[in-house]
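User: I'm preparing a small set of examples for a lab meeting where we compare how different chains pack in three dimensions. I only have the primary sequence for this one, and I'd like the structure in token form so I can line it up with the others. Please keep the answer compact; I'll paste it straight into my notes.
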Amino acid sequence: MDSEKHIDPLLPDNNKSKLLSSLASEDEENAKQLQHWKDVANALSIDWGWIQRQMGVIGLIALGVLLYITNRYQAQQEAIEAEALRNELKDWKYRSLTRSSELTLKCRQSNLEEILHEMGDTTITFNVTPPYKLTSKEKREAE
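Assistant: Understood. Below is the structure token output for the 143-residue chain.
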């Protein structure tokens, strides 16, 4: 046997026989496993020639799956970015509304009068009579 050539000559004879029997049992086990996979392939009726002929289609399907995954990832990233921009726009809208209401509050005539009065500015006087007198039709007829 070829396996006897690789055995250390310094081993006792009973260890050599044990080693040879274990190597033989490993070879048998490997052969059984190989036979098992052949049986599985035969049971599934796998025709390797057909698979080789269809490699182009299989490659095309794999490419399609890869493109689908990358496109999905890119679409998710764009959706996340759009949501972030929407939230930022909403934030700026509320800030603008707040600033506008603060400006309106500060620019009301009554607030301006108070600020000028507190500063002691008496050169500007505000008109107390309205520029137009609004009357209803009934009052005009009565006059």
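A couple of notes for your slides: The two ends are 138 Å apart (CA to CA). The chain has two domains: 1-46, 55-122.

User: Perfect, thanks.
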